[in-house]
TrEMBL record:
Pathway: Amine and polyamine biosynthesis; betaine biosynthesis via choline pathway [regulation]. This is HTH-type transcriptional regulator BetI. Residues 26-45 bind DNA. One of its GO terms (molecular function) is transcription cis-regulatory region binding. It comes from Caballeronia insecticola. GO terms for biological process: glycine betaine biosynthetic process from choline; negative regulation of DNA-templated transcription. Residues 3-63 form the HTH tetR-type domain. Repressor involved in the biosynthesis of the osmoprotectant glycine betaine. It represses transcription of the choline transporter BetT and the genes of BetAB involved in the synthesis of glycine betaine. Repressor involved in choline regulation of the bet genes. The keyword Transcription applies.
């Protein structure tokens, strides 16, 4: 029951942030959306910061699982592995309205809250590590690090622009631009 309740509250948090923003996502509003008492939310998460942290851990876990699944399914060549990482970052689970707005709230709050900052650092390092490992299979280590930094910045920039556009995320355009970058970098080595 505990895990079911936690999942229900995380879902309610995502949708409350989507509808009301982070400021409107109080323990009471999340509890109301989940049709439970505020005391139960406090019991599971402590306070609003704990609720946001748990919600972001859920979103980050989903991203990590999607990335792992796509990388395992991809062909063994660097281009396919890199494209798998990109595709996971633009998966529907990461670019739907509630998750996008929660990511934006998380990024903003991570500048002020050490535990959220730590989660953001872990996510940034994981992305860079995956990209660097795959670029390293085709480039020198310094070139792979530069290419990984560039692709990570491109992923974040495309994602941020898409999130702020005020219209449905154009996944195909984002993928096309990121894939073009991969092709340019890998084709330039030859």
């Amino acid at each position: 029951m505990r895990e079911i309740r936690r999942a229900q509250l995380i879902d309610a948090t995502l949708h409350t942030i989507d509808q009301s923003g982070l400021a409107g996502a109080t323990l009471a509003s999340v509890a109301q959306r989940a049709s439970i008492s505020t005391g139960i939310v406090s019991h599971y998460f402590g306070d609003k910061d704990g609720l946001l942290e748990a919600t972001m851990r859920h979103v980050l876990r989903s991203l990590w699982q999607g990335t792992s699944r796509r990388r395992k399914a991809a062909k063994a060549d660097p281009r396919a592995k890199l494209r798998a990482v990109v595709a996971a970052n633009f998966d529907v689970e990461q670019v739907n309205g509630p998750v996008m707005k929660t990511w934006l709230a998380f990024w903003s709050e991570s500048m002020h809250k050490p535990e959220l900052r730590r989660l953001q650092r872990v996510n940034t390092r994981r992305l860079h590590s995956n990209l660097c490992a795959d670029f390293s299979r085709a480039l020198t280590k310094p070139a792979a690090r530069r290419a990984a930094s560039g692709l990570a910045a491109l992923i974040d920039g495309l994602w941020l622009r898409g999130a702020l556009a005020g219209e449905p995320f154009d996944t195909k355009a984002a993928l096309r631009l990121a894939y073009d970058y991969i092709d340019l970098v890998l084709d330039a080595r030859g």
